[in-house]
Amino acid sequence: MFVPIFTGGRLEAARQEAKAELDGALATREQLKQEIRQEVTDSFYQVTELVDQMQAADQRRKSADEALRLGQARYNAQLASYLDLLTAEVAKTEAETALARTQFDYQRARAELEFAIGQTVQP
Question: What is the pTM of this model?
C-alpha cells in the first residue's frame, strides 16, 4: 500500500478546488431553481390577469354590439345622424380589436407558462 506523504499540499488543494466547484455548481442550481419558480409564478399570474381582461374586453364588445344595434335603429328612425352611426361602428371595431389583442396576449402568456412548466396547461 502506497500513501503519499510529501505531495506539497497538492492533494489538499485539489480537494479544496473540487469542493469550491461543487459549492459553485450547487449555488448556480439553487439560483436557477429560484429563477424558474419566479418565471412560473409570473406566467401564472399573467395568464390569470389576462383571463379577466378577456372577459372584460368581451363584455365591452357585447356592449358595443348593442350600442351599434341601437344606433342603427335610431338612424333608421331618423333619430340619429350618420355620424352617430359611424361613431358606434368605430366603437364596435375598437372593442373587437381590443378583444382580439387580449386573446392574442392570453395565448402568448399561456404558451410561456406551458414552456416554463414543461407541459400543456388546460384552459
Answer: 0.73
Question: What domains can you pick out in the chain, each with its CATH number?
Answer: 10-117 (1.20.120)
CA 118 to chain centre: 15
Least confident of 55-69, 86-100, 109-123: 109-123
The residue to which cell 355620424 is assigned: 83
C-alpha grid cell for residue 48?
A: 390569470
CA angle 96, 97, 100 (to 5 degrees): 85
CB neighbour burial string for 22-49, b if at least 16 within 10 angstroms, e if fewer: eeeeeeeeeeeeeeeeeebeebeebbee
